[in-house]
């Protein structure tokens, strides 16, 4: 496999393992036997040449440098550059990154194209861990959000349930960077912004199913989901029944 130089940091996960992988991805030549779920990092602006000896399956995430420079600076308190990441030579493992990717892949399977909130939050977690693995203690803000910031962010989520709201937009309401906001929100509220938004959407879907005769497709769109099928998958995960079954259950008349 080979590709021209890209202005992106590219993280690749080997989904199968068991293959011999050799080549160069920006940190010198390597020759390793890949393990299942092992990770590879390709440096920005470097033309990769990689050889894999057997059939394999990969998943990749790309971080455009211009869009993620600010997050890298925040994660490392300005002490690390893309060139300083020490992970460009062969495979490595990280339970933290592998867990984040597993959740991201699962949410993508459930909801389709990742939301901006989902993608940005996962990227922040991954870059922070890449900094740690490269020997730079990343900076983590202390404490939670101010009460006014919590209220304003929660209000904004409720007002824009049907939209693909971004982590950056929520962070701007709290007058923080997206990297610090995600951690401080979870410390204050107990769950991540993405989980909290999903809870609000499911609560709204329950309300609309109980109190209106709107078609389920319309309810899906009003709660930020692209189709009734996506809403059904998310709804079943949280309520353990389909939207249609929930509507029937809450509308069954009481018998005396």
Topology:
Elements: E1 2-3, E2 8-14, E3 20-24, E4 29-33, E5 39-42, E6 48-52, E7 58-64, H1 65-76, E8 91-92, H2 95-111, H3 116-133, H4 147-159, H5 167-173, H6 178-189, H7 193-211, H8 216-222, H9 228-239, H10 243-250
Task: Please name the defining characteristics of this protein.
four-stranded antiparallel β-sheet; 256 residues; 8 strands; globular; alpha+beta
Number of helices: 10
Shape: globular
* Helical percentage: 40-55%
Largest β-sheet summary: 4 strands, antiparallel
Can you characterise this structure?
The protein is of the alpha+beta class and 256 residues long. The protein contains ten helices and eight strands. It has helices at residues 65-76, 95-111, 116-133, 147-159, 167-173, 178-189, 193-211, 216-222, 228-239, 243-250; strands at 2-3, 8-14, 20-24, 29-33, 39-42, 48-52, 58-64, 91-92. The strands form two sheets. It has a four-stranded antiparallel beta sheet, with no helix packed on it. Strands 7-2-5-8 form a four-stranded antiparallel beta sheet. A hairpin with a 4-residue loop joins strand 3 (20-24) and strand 4 (29-33). Helix 2 runs antiparallel to helix 3.
């Amino acid at each position: 496999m080979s590709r021209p130089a890209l202005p992106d940091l590219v993280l690749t996960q080997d989904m199968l393992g068991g293959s011999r992988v050799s080549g160069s991805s920006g940190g010198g030549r390597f020759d390793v036997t890949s393990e299942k779920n092992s990770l590879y990092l390709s440096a920005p602006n470097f033309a990769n040449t990689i050889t894999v000896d057997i059939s394999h399956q990969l998943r990749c995430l790309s971080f455009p440098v211009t869009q993620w420079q600010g997050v890298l600076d925040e994660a490392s308190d300005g002490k690390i550059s893309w060139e300083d990441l020490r992970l460009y030579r062969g495979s490595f493992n990280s339970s933290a990154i592998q867990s984040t990717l597993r959740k991201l892949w699962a949410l993508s399977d459930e909801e389709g194209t990742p939301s901006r909130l989902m993608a940005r939050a996962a990227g922040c977690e991954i870059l922070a861990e890449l900094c740690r693995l490269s020997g730079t203690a990343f900076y983590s803000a202390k404490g939670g959000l101010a009460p006014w910031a919590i209220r304003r962010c929660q209000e904004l989520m409720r007002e824009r349930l049907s939209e693909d709201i971004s982590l950056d937009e929520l962070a701007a309401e709290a007058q923080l960077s997206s990297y610090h906001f995600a951690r401080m929100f979870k410390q204050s509220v107990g769950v991540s912004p993405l989980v909290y938004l999903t809870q609000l959407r499911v609560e709204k879907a329950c309300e609309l199913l109980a109190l209106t005769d709107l078609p389920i497709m319309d309810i899906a769109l009003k709660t930020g989901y692209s189709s009734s099928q996506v809403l059904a998958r998310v709804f079943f995960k949280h309520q353990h029944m389909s939207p249609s079954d929930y509507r029937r259950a809450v509308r069954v008349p009481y018998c005396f």
